[in-house]
Amino acid sequence: MSEQATITTNSEITETPNAPVSHEATLFAEPLGHIGSLTVTNSLLASWISVVILVIFLLSVGKKVKKVPRGIQNIFEIILEKALELADSVTGSRKKSEKFLPISLALFLFIFVNNWMGLLPGMGTIGFNEVEGGHKLFIPLFRGGTADINTTLALALFAVVASHIAGVLTVGAWNYFNKFVNIKLLLEIPGKIRKDFTIVLVNPIKIFVGLVEIISEFAKMASLTFRLFGNIFAGEVLLASMMALFAYILPLPFMFLEMIVGIIQALIFSILAMVYMTIATEEHEH
Amino acid sequence: MDMTMLAKALAIGIGSIAPAFAIGKIGAKAMESIGRNPECAEKILLPMLLAAAFAEAVAIYALVIAFSIK
Fold it and tell me: How many CB atoms within 10 Å of residue A180?
């Protein structure tokens, strides 16, 4: 990754005058240590911190839930109502919204807190130096949680597998399996061939479409992963470049851009998860 | 001859032509429909943002490739 944007600071040079420390924006998160055989990276640390923040915040609301809301409970009731309305416009029925909202809202809150935490001062700047391959490298202690492909891949897998499980639970395993590998239509051909001759031409096409849908499942996973990762990572690199250019007023509009992008990407991820779950649980379409 | 820099530049350069065009068209259609029906401005905003984010994702794929070319 030596071609990446290298930003060298003066303070490091005065400490060890012979060795300039290179600050590089790496595609993969830097490892900080190991717990057993699990590599703890700086993005993982930031994700843990955001989970702690969310748990503390939500527990403090959930403990004292009153019939007549006051204070913070008001905010959460507003959030929940707006989220249910948005979910209704996506799924079309209140019953389905209530079933799918926990997963979508959890995804939204997690991704939202992670995206905005990557913008706080101290993320990417507080760290330590490590000697690697003959020259000193600066390793930041924190890095935005969603700026790591592992996190976004895990979230995308979770969303897609949740849609499959929701489909199997709703329409039954045989029906759901036939959405992809359409054995039902194959068995129908000899039975209906007298009534309607065109079924020999139409059904193989439908079977082929079902097989292509398997490929589109993988495309869903890839697109969810790279959309979230690319937006947040590119935002980090952009902010670092702007600050290297002129650190005082220039990064301000880009900070606003990153805040907006953080909200929008979290919203899109959770809405897409809900859309996939809705499509998977659709009953018979003729 | 080391073409890495050229490859990176071409990847992101060519890869962002079509998404920029697409987002422009989405915005233009949204403006047009708001002009025809000014009351529905908030209702149009959310689907427009959704469609714009989808179109932008393709440019982001190109950017990730540009970053990962060594």
Answer: 14
